[in-house]
Amino acid sequence: MPAEIRIWEISDDGSLNSIPNTQINLEEQLETWIEQDISIISPNYMVIGRQVTTDFGGVIDLLCLDSSGDIVVVELKRGKTPREVTAQALDYASWVTDLSHQRISEIANEYLPDNKHIETAFQEAFGEELPETLNEGHSVLIVAESMDQSTERIVKYLSAQGVRINVLTVQHFSGVNGKEFVAQTFMIEPSESTEKVRSGSKRRQSLTREHIRFICEKKGLAELYDNLVARLDSIFPSKGTTASSLAFKGKIGNGGARVILSLLPFESEAKQGLKFQVYNRRLAEYCGISTEHVEALLPASHEEWTYWAAVNDPDKDYWVGFQGFFKTPEEVETFAKSLSG
Predict the structure, then answer these.
(1) I want to staple 60 with a disulfide (CB 3.0 to 4.6 A). Which of 51, 52, 130, 315 is the partner?
(2) What are the distances in angstroms from CA 118 to CA 129, 176, 203, 258?
(3) pLDDT for position 89
(4) d(C-alpha 48, C-alpha 71), whole Å
(5) Domain termination site, one of 198, 224, 252
(6) pLDDT (0 to 100) of residue 263
């Protein structure tokens, strides 16, 4: 069974007073509490839907997105039998497994307040851009005030078979001074659950910088790549890799670090050059130059480009720019020298 939660209050004289666990039909309030503060479950989740109707007729209590762009189904037990709660959770998992980027965006954009779009909400929640590919994996979390042995046995079996499923037990406590407390514990330690399924995950792992350079070397672009990266490293102190790119980031305004320019080794070729994508307005604001100046600095081989998921985003100006190819050291020199001042 999940570990029993007990809480003591330290009194003024240093003695301990046990705070009793109170039964208040907690599951009727849990959905609202979790929606209001998802950190009850995890700081790495954001809610993108409540009472989401599936194509099979079921209704998911809360639909979340984690910081990797994977879907999380949150289902409250609400007195269901062990067979019902696990079967329902797996039924929902079978539906979310094929949710497209577009469908996820539609669900989120209908739910998020103030007409906020999923890209903006994700950036605010995690300080990173929404991944290019969403829902390459998914997980299920059953939330309850208590858990029976049968449900525990079923969930542990499914987890051992590589199914990303867990149980969160949340309990309520009332002190003699009228203060109320909520405590939680996971049936399976989240880090342990993640480790069990990592090898079977569909999500592509981020490239290493060594791997990116190796790809460029095989394509005869290593010297050009080394030159450009060395110059950009001094301009953008923050950088990171994705499954397909090396991304250079910069802080714009009061927000977090945002991707400004990316190099894409898989789409680069010896004849064409080193592929890049750049957000025009972001680069202009970061370097304190005009957007017209940005385009003037780019290699001859470039064209207009918009991040595909931001077509209807009210913040669209920050999602448009150019893509093209660096072909010569002179193009690298012109671009980087002007940015570094």
Answers:
(1) 52
(2) 10, 43, 20, 15
(3) 86
(4) 9
(5) 198
(6) 95
Distance from CA of residue 205 to its chain's centroid? 14
Amino acid identity at 258: R
Does residue 128 form part of some domain?
A: yes
Pair 224, 147 in one domain:
no
- Would you give the distance in Å from CA 5 to the centre of its chain? 30
Please check the confidence at residue 123 and state whether its pLDDT lies above 90: no
The pLDDT tens digits of the residues spanning 272-326 come to 999 999 999 999 999 999 999 999 999 999 999 987 655 555 667 888 999 999 9
* pLDDT for res 196: 46
What are the phi and psi torsion angles at 228 (to 5°)?
A: -65, -45
Q: How many residues does the chain have?
A: 341
Nearest alpha carbon to residue 183 among 173, 193, 196? 173
Tokens describing residue 68: 């990797």
In sign, the C-alpha dihedral spanning 110, 116, 121, 123 is: positive
Domain assignment present for residue 2? The answer is: no
The answer to whether 137 and 203 have CB atoms below 8 angstroms apart is yes
Which of 178, 198, 218 is the last residue before a domain boundary? 198
> 3-state class of 55 per DSSP?
coil
CATH number of the domain to which 90 belongs? 3.40.1350.10
Q: What are phi and psi of 224, to 5 degrees?
A: -65, -40
